[in-house]
Every structure is written in structure tokens, then in C-alpha cells.
Write a structure and sequence with these properties.
481 residues; alpha+beta; five-stranded antiparallel sheet; dioxygenase
């Protein structure tokens, strides 16, 4: 359920080849392909072959293998952490819930990276297995290693790298190159409020050497190197929600469907609510920019805009300056899509991956196990001090301040004297209110199992408005925590 409606709903992907193959350089890391076989999962497929299940879009994967393996030997050898790289294969059931069928735990080969990985595959115990059996505890432990990898992926990649870090160059270039009266400055400025300040604080106490992140997460002293190394895979255009869903195989183009996409998992709360928010943002950006740019030539001839984009690509994200996917900023469509993506990252994406941290992470993952599980299991659980540190951190991160400014709001009514722009913004606010009503309705539908799982937590992380405090909802305009 949390793969679709939790804190990190941006990793789950459609399985399109079996067994899963690694994209790591085989000359450096040897054979890193999966050892999961058809025999491991056949009895979960309800009579289908693996090929038939793939063709029917029934198989999905949560892949934390290639991101972890390059650091795993150093982590296990040089820190107090001991963990695995993981792959999880899941089956899409008729009620749109995902059932894990196999978990692969991988370690570096003891002879060296060039010899590949040592893989071991675990499957769920038989349905008639006695509760509390060794097989059940081992399966729960395998799931725990997956959850730990997903937690680290969430905090260091999805949350920090893909929102806090990548938005900084946009903030800097906007303030350096666009004048205060420039229409694009007025559009974007609210979505950059306090971001540089909160990132500066993070560098002092959270992501610094010996800081909270290194103490709390298993990569320890390799945490920021781990996060930074994955910047090489970052693609600005793929942070647009529709593009992200298509890249992961979670949606396919479908002009007749709402938003022009058909979701392969119909009950995918993050995607469903997210696409509503994305479309409302995009409509607002399109309405607003059309007031000032009537033609594509107006984009090309705006020297401030062109210098802004040049600095952003060539300096701000200079390591990626030669990537072919960068928009050229030569037409209105490129401006609308780029600004929509920036606003999405700073507002909805950050909200979806931040403000539910205490709600989701503060619950006890292992309460369902027997009262006294195997002692070896207990030795894998984080020490009490680290646990308290993490819980304290995510409690703070999950809080809204009393002066928060949410999507569809401005901190002053005088942000523009252009009546047409003000009217477009008012329509934006009303459209967001309609999205809220739809989210409330969806959360009432008990047949939507991914909104009404066993933990009974309705999906509200993309509900636009909120009050102060820990609410598990609300989309602030910008990254302020």
C-alpha cells in the first residue's frame, strides 16, 4: 500500500523484463542481474506464466539494487550498519492491491566487485504455515530490509536530492537574472520562499559530516556521497508527474482518458491526486503566461528570460549542461512545462514526500510479529537512541508553521496590479478547492483498498490546504521545512 500511497510512491515500476536486469557497468560490478526465477513466483500467478503476467501488466518491481550495490561493501565494512541491496517483485491483484511474491537480498561478492553479487531469494510462507514460524519471521525480516532501503531512498533521494537540492539552482538563477517586476519572477517567487534558508540550516545540522543524517541512516558517513552520486541520473523533464509515471511504466498515453494518461493501477492514490494537482497548476501557468507571451517569438526575444534559462542550465545545473533533454526555452510550450515542473517540485512533490513522515514512519512496523520474535531479528532493529533521533527529526519535518502559505494562496493581495492575472489566480484557487472535494470523496470509497488499507490512514498528502501543526496534509507553496 505504501508503495502507492506512502512517503515514497515514486519508485514502484512496471516489470517489463524477467528476470530483472541490472544497468550497472558489468566491467566494474560483474553480473548484477537478478536470480529470481519463474519457479520462485509461479504459484502466485493464478495460472499465468511469467510472460503472460508481464503482457497483462500484472507484475511490478520495487528496485533498490543498482542504487545500493555500489556503496554496499563500504557500508557493511566501514560502518556499524549491515544491510542488503533488494529487489521486490509484486503481483497486481484484481482489487488493485499489490502482493509481494519474492524478495531478493544481495551482497557484494567477497572476492571483489568484479565478480558480481551474491543473491538469495525469499518468498512468502505457505498460507497454511503456523503463525510465528521460522519461515514467517524470515519473510518479515526480508521485508524489513526492503523497508529500510525504501526509507533511505525516500530521505536521501526522493526527498532531499529530488526536491531540496535540485530546486536550489532555480531559486538562485531566478533571483539573479529576473527583475522583481518580471512576470516569471512574480509567478515563481512564492514557490522559492525560505528554501535557501532551510537548506542552509540542513547543511549545518542535518546533512553535515557527523550530522543527524549520518547518525540516523544506514549509509552513515557515505550518506551525502550516496545521494550526490545519483544526481547523475537526474532529469529535470522527468520530474514532471506525467513523464515520471510514463517512465516508470505506471501510465501510458491515452488521449481519451483524463489528463491524457491511463494508469495501469487504477487505485494509485499518489498518481490520481497528483495528476489532478498537476493539471490545475499547469492550467494556471498556461493562463498566466499567455497574458505576457502571445507568441513563441516573445519567448525568444525576452533577454531576461533567456539569460535566466542560460544561467540555470549552464551554471546552476552545470554538471548537466550538455544533457539533450533540457528544453531550449524557445516557445510557449517549453516555458509552461518548465514552470509547471518547478512549481510541482517545490510544492506538491515536496509535500507528498515530507509532511506524512511522522504519520507513516512513526508507527511500529513489527507490531504484527509475535510478542517475542527470534532474537536475531531483534538485533537488526535500529538502536533506541537512533530511533528516538529519527522520530524527533521526522516529527519536526512533518509540522506546518502557523504562517505557512499554501498552493493557491499569496502572502499579500498586492502581488500583482494586473487584474487579468489576479482573475486567473482566483480561478486557480477555485480549481484547487474542487480537487480537495474530489480527494475527500475518493477517501470515502471503501472499495479503493489503497486508500483504506489495514492501517486505516486515508491518503491526504496531496490535499492542498491545511492548518498549522502535524496534519498529514497541506501543500505549501515552497520548501520551507
Amino acid at each position: 500500500m505504501e508503495m502507492l500511497a506512502g512517503l515514497n510512491p515514486v519508485i514502484i515500476s512496471l516489470l517489463q523484463e524477467f528476470p530483472p536486469r541490472s544497468k550497472l557497468n558489468a566491467k566494474v560490478y560483474g553480473n548484477q542481474d537478478s536470480s529470481i526465477s519463474e519457479e520462485h513466483i509461479r504459484h502466485f500467478l493464478k495460472g499465468l506464466t511469467v510472460a503472460e503476467a508481464i503482457k497483462s501488466n500484472k507484475l511490478f518491481i520495487l528496485d533498490h539494487h543498482d542504487t545500493v550495490i555500489p556503496y554496499l561493501r563500504r557500508i557493511n565494512d566501514n560502518t556499524t550498519s549491515k544491510t542488503y541491496a533488494t529487489r521486490t517483485i509484486l503481483y497486481l491483484q484484481n482489487d488493485d492491491t499489490l502482493k509481494p511474491m519474492a524478495i531478493e537480498l544481495s551482497l557484494p561478492h567477497p572476492g571483489g566487485d568484479q565478480f558480481g553479487a551474491i543473491n538469495k531469494v525469499y518468498t512468502p510462507p505457505p498460507a497454511d504455515q503456523k503463525e510465528g514460524s521460522l519461515e514467517e519471521i524470515i519473510w518479515q525480516l526480508a521485508k524489513a530490509y526492503v523497508a529500510v532501503n525504501d526509507s533511505v531512498s525516500h530521505e536521501l533521494i526522493t526527498h532531499f536530492l529530488h526536491t531540496h537540492a535540485v530546486i536550489e539552482p532555480f531559486v538562485i538563477a531566478t533571483n539573479r537574472q529576473l527583475s522583481l517586476i518580471h512576470p516569471i519572477y512574480k509567478l515563481l517567487h512564492p514557490h522559492f520562499r525560505d528554501t535557501m534558508s532551510i537548506n542552509a540550516i540542513a547543511r549545518q545540522i542535518l546533512i553535515n559530516g557527523g550530522g543527524v543524517v549520518e547518525l540516523a541512516f544506514y549509509p552513515a558517513k557515505y550518506s551525502m556521497e550516496f545521494s550526490s552520486s545519483l544526481y547523475k541520473d537526474w532529469n529535470f523533464t522527468e520530474q514532471a508527474l506525467p513523464q515520471d509515471l510514463k517512465k516508470r511504466g505506471m501510465a501510458v498515453p491515452h488521449p481519451e482518458s483524463k489528463h491524457g494518461l491511463r494508469l495501469l493501477i487504477k487505485d494509485y492514490p499518489y498518481a490520481i491526486d497528483g495528476l489532478d494537482i498537476w493539471s490545475v497548476i499547469r492550467n494556471w501557468v498556461s493562463d498566466y503566461t499567455s497574458l505576457y507571451y502571445k507568441t513563441d517569438e516573445a519567448i525568444r526575444s525576452d533577454t531576461e528570460l533567456q539569460m535566466w534559462w542560460k544561467e540555470l542550465v549552464e551554471v546552476g545545473h552545470g554538471d548537466k549542461r550538455d544533457e539533450p533533454w533540457w528544453p531550449k526555452m524557445e516557445n510557449r510550450e517549453e516555458l509552461i512545462e518548465s514552470c509547471t515542473t518547478m512549481i510541482w517540485i517545490a510544492s506538491a512533490l515536496h509535500a507528498a514526500t515530507n509532511f506524512g513522515q511522522y504519520t507513516y514512519s512513526g508507527t511500529a512496523e513489527f507490531e504484527e510479529l509475535r510478542e517475542n520474535p527470534d532474537r536475531a531479528f531483534m538485533r537488526t532493529i535500529t538502536a533506541k537512541l537512533q530511533t528516538l533521533l529519527v522520530i524527533s527529526l521526522i516529527e519536526v519535518l512533518s509540522m506546518h508553521s502557523s504562517d505557512e502559505v499554501y498552493l493557491g494562496q499569496r502572502d499579500t493581495a498586492e502581488w500583482t496590479v494586473d487584474l487579468a492575472a489576479a482573475a486567473a489566480f482566483e480561478r486557480f484557487g477555485k480549481a484547487l478547492a474542487e480537487v480537495e472535494e474530489r480527494i475527500v470523496e475518493r477517501n470515502r470509497e471503501e472499495k479503493l483498498r489503497n486508500r483504506h488499507g489495514p492501517v486505516k490512514i486515508p491518503y491526504t498528502l496531496l490535499f492542498p490546504s491545511s492548518g498549522a501543526g502535524m496534519t498529514g496534509k497541506g501543500i505549501p507553496n515552497s520548501i520551507t521545512i
